[in-house]
Amino acid sequence: MSKIFNQIGGYRKLHSFNFATIIHLGTMSFCKRYLSWKDDPLGKALGQMVGASRSGKQNIVEGSERAKTSTETEIKLTDVAKASLSELQGDLEDYLVQKGKIPWSIHNPEHQAMVAIMLDEFEYTEDLLHDYWTFLLKQKKKFDRWLEEQDDIAAANALIILIQRATGLLARQLARQEQDFVAGGGIKEKMTSARLAARAEPAGPDCPDCGAPMRQRTSGRGPFWGCSAFPQCKGIRKIEE
């Protein structure tokens, strides 16, 4: 385990990411079917909505990948993802009101039916991209009754409900990321701690290649002496019992 880098999990296992991906696909379909050129001649509404849905998805990806070296960046990007999806929700609410409608009540049977649908868990495989998108489209199909098979009012309401579920999960992720940062600090603190700990380690025998003192290291095969000048020098010795 690294003494410096944060341990990161795959973002494709996050329900927040999978909801955000379904929202992005659903938003592109919604805009293609229901936002006509006559109503949006400059393409601003369409561009803003698709852009916000993409931002919600892609910032989860970047935040997860940047988590290895910066918890601060991960927190910021997770917050951007949440804010982007909230922006999209506002556009969908406006769309409904312009149509003389309002969002479904939480007591509406359609609302309750959507909230009751759970996503499956994704497990990484050797054929990652093929298997992930097979999985994701199967998850989206659970909501296609509202997203694809009814009218624009049902689709807008469905996207709003999915956004609420995604942003709720992102809020929980932010709380957990804050706890991790408070407990473990940032990469600069970890680098300093790791360096101080290395200096405090007792020196081993001299390196057979360059003569520098060696430090105890551990690999999958067990402990060994490694040159303190690594990676410039890759000298090693066995640890005698």
Offer a concise description of the structure:
The chain is mostly helical and 241 residues long. The chain is built from eight helices and three strands; from the N terminus they run H-H-H-H-H-H-H-H-E-E-E. Helices cover 59% and strands 6% of the residues.
Describe this entry's structure for a reader:
The chain is mainly alpha-helical and 241 residues long. It folds into two domains: 11-188, no CATH class; 201-237, no CATH class. The protein is built from eight helices and three strands. It has helices at 15-34, 44-66, 71-98, 109-115, 128-141, 144-147, 152-184, 187-200; strands at residues 214-219, 222-227, 236-237. It has a three-stranded antiparallel beta sheet with strand order 1-2-3, with no helix packed on it. Helix 1 (15-34) runs antiparallel to helix 2 (44-66).
Over the alpha carbons, how many angstroms does the gyration radius reach? 25 Å
Number of strands: 3
Whole-number mean pLDDT: 87
- Give the fraction of residues assigned to helices: 55-70%
Q: Count up the helices.
A: 8
Record the strand order, biggest sheet. Answer: 1-2-3
Layout of helices and strands:
Blueprint: H1 15-34, H2 44-66, H3 71-98, H4 109-115, H5 128-141, H6 144-147, H7 152-184, H8 187-200, E1 214-219, E2 222-227, E3 236-237
Helix pairs in contact: 1-2, 1-7, 2-3, 3-7
